Amino acid sequence: MCGIVGYIGNREAYPIVLKGLERLEYRGYDSAGIVLYDGQDLQLCKTQGKVLDLKKKSEKENITKGHVALGHTRWATHGVPNDVNAHPHYSNSGNLVIIHNGIIENYASIKEELIKRGYVFHSDTDTEVLVNLIEEIQKHEGVKLGKAVQIALNQVVGAYAIAVFDRNKPDEIIVAKLGSPLAIGVGEDEFFIASDASPFIEYTNNAIYLEDEQMAIIRKGRDVRVRQIDGDKQVAPYIQELQLNLEQIEKGGYEHFMLKEIYEQPEAIKDTYRGRLRINDGIVKMAGLEDNIHKFLNAKRIIVVACGTSWHAGLVAEYIFEDLVRIPVEVEYASEFRYRNPIINSDDVVIAISQSGETADTLAAIKLAKENGAFVFGVCNVVGSSIARESHAGAYTHAGPEIGVASTKAFTTQITVLTLMALKLAKRNGRISQSEFHQYLAELETIPAKVERSLEVDSHVKYISSIYKDVANFLYLGRGYNFPVALEGALKLKEISYIHAEGYPAAEMKHGPIALIDEQMPVVVIATKKGHYEKVISNIQEIKSRKGKIIAVVTEGDRDVKLLADHVIEVPETYEALTPLLTTIPLQLLSYHIAVMRGCNVDQPRNLAKSVTVE
Predict the structure, then answer these.
(1) Would you tell me how many other CB atoms lie within 10 Å of the CB of residue 326?
(2) Into how many domains does the chain fold?
(3) Residue 170 domain-assigned?
(4) How high is the pLDDT of residue 278?
(5) Which of 244, 504, 553, 579 is deepest in the core (most CB within 10 A)?
């Protein structure tokens, strides 16, 4: 959540920063702002609303000139969303300006002290407190900006990614991070600053990703200097070559990023198992797992920590790990795990799952697990992300950039990685035979083509969506491997269409939710031939006897469910453990089309952020 963009160099900064803010809109925000240095003074423009509103306002006020700029999209924490609370924020003198992602937890006590010293505050934000603290240290200690930022950050408690500019030092920007991502793009005599690399990918392929508790002094015409915030230790910056390209972060002719990403899933799954699934050799090759396989095979249990969609992928992993590997698995909400004093042992393996690799609660859960001696294996999508760095080992999903707030290809690629892990472990500990192992690999290799066939139901799902777009509630039911898919389908509908939806194990319906069934209640039932098929048919009959409307996801060629359901959506047949990779596709399409028909902002649903980097 929130987005930072900055530029210092010889180009006009305004179009670079505005375009960068547009590319970070997926992170979720409620206001936006920009400040430019025109060679003489600072020009500030900010507004509640979208980046488009900022563009209109800044161009109307002719705030567009300068070779240095900082831009920000804000997600309200301290202070309501409005023009005043929007970033950037000035210090009292007007010399310093700051943009900030994160939360300064002890801002109130600092603010109280600064007020005693004569400072006046115009916003309700913790960020304005931080910039004035930096200014006070500059004045009181008589130090340069970089040192003042360092001293200030050692006095605050919380999380942050910041960029600070002093108009008295127009060739310099100071940046720092703790718990919130920050990348520095390195160009030819120019530098870019952003929450991720997408704002500057067309200008440079070289980036420095700051580690936690690091700050950098960025000076035009000089190398970036990185040092620890705690102490004066210099750090040699590692310049990483980016694999991202511009085409990946554009819509490519699709109306929304979400639809594009739904249709990218066949290739994303293929990219995720490419080089790992070696069917001719009869092996799964995953370096992060191979180098630490004894940790898994000797583990008394596996604990999965994740949030949202990643938590649902973890539930699928629970089924497949326990089924094939026969190691006990617990799946925990990272936000609860970190606070409930969990029992963690040195022979536990913790799998942390996150699309962005920056999820604050999951990061905190990792640190807790490590403090208690557990081995941590990260599964994430973003190379160089915080979770990738904090984990002992891990695997990337190779889904490519996911811009839509509602995850789609993240879910299926996470399941792909976790399935590969389970198969490798099951083969290694002798729980499945060589023949079964090879059959699984062969079937997994067919999944991208079967996902493509699942996408062929799009027009049919669109028709079903038109019938139910105005309902108030949905139920989603599944059993076994498809219970997590029911949860994920309900989450997708809630996220982007704002329709209340709940997912349940199908057998649990009669323990409460069946009271909700009437002719106004559509029920999505995942009823593939593999896994408790007859039991699910009985559940469907219970719904029909109470006049509920049935939308069934079934295996191609199904006859029995077709006789009962109001609408049937077919997916190809596959092994039960792999069905979530197919059954989730029509549910993604259903939520997408209903949201579009309701006029909702599919890619940027209200109140949501792509990456939740604060508590």
Answers:
(1) 11
(2) 3
(3) yes
(4) 92
(5) 553
> pLDDT tens-digit profile of 93-126?
999 999 999 889 999 999 999 999 999 999 999 9
Other Cβ atoms less than 10 A from the Cβ of 347: the count is 12
Q: What is the pLDDT of residue 53?
A: 95
Q: Looking at 46, 177, 450, 610, which residue is catalytic?
A: 610
Side chain identity at 608, as an amino acid letter?
Answer: L
Q: What is the pLDDT of residue 48?
A: 94
> Across all residues in the chain, what is the average pLDDT?
92
Residue 610 catalytic? yes
**DSSP assignment of 197-255:** SGGGTTT-SEEEEPPTTEEEEEETTS--EEEESSS--EE---EEEP---GGGGS-TT-S
Name residue, tokens 């900064």.
13
8 Å CB contact between 493 and 544: no
DSSP for 222-235 reads S--EEEESSS--EE
Contact 131, 153 (CB under 8 A): no
Q: Band the pLDDT of 244: cuts 50, 70, 90.
A: low
Q: What are the pLDDT digits (tens) for 15-50?
A: 999 999 998 887 778 899 999 999 889 999 999 999
390: its two tokens? 């904090």
The CATH number linked to 448 is 3.40.50.10490
**Shared domain check, 265 and 238:** no
Kindly state the tokens that stand for 318: 């629970």
Tokens of 185: 């793009």
Whether 407 shows a pLDDT value over 80: the answer reads yes
Closest CA to 318 of 307, 295, 334, 302: 302
> Would residue 178 count as lying in a domain?
yes
Rounded to a whole number of angstroms, the distance between the first and last alpha carbons of the chain is 11
Helix runs in 469-579, H state only: 483-497, 533-544
Percent of the chain with pLDDT over 70: 98
Catalytic pick from 2, 45, 307, 600? 2
Cα–Cα–Cα angle for 26, 32, 34, rounded to 5 degrees: 120
Q: Report CA-CA distances (Å) from 429 to 88, 141, 278, 346, 421.
A: 56, 62, 19, 21, 12
The whole-number average pLDDT for the span 203-208 is 92
Is 45 catalytic? The answer is: no
- Helix, coil or strand: residue 118: coil
pTM of the complete model: 0.79
* Whether the Cβ atoms of residue 258 and residue 603 lie closer than 8 Å to each other: yes
Q: What is the DSSP string of 357-394?
A: S--HHHHHHHHHHHHTT-EEEEEESSTT-HHHHHSSEE
Identity of residue 573 = E
Nearest-CA neighbor of 254 among 245, 265, 262? 262
Q: CB neighbours (10 Å) of residue 458? A: 17
Q: H/E element holding 492?
A: helix 483-497
Strands across the sheet containing 393-396? 329-333, 301-306, 348-354, 375-380, 393-396
Residues 212 and 256 in one domain: no
Domain that holds residue 515: 456-600
d(C-alpha 159, C-alpha 132), whole Å:
17
pLDDT at 607: 74
In the predicted structure, residue 507 carries a pLDDT above the cut 80: no
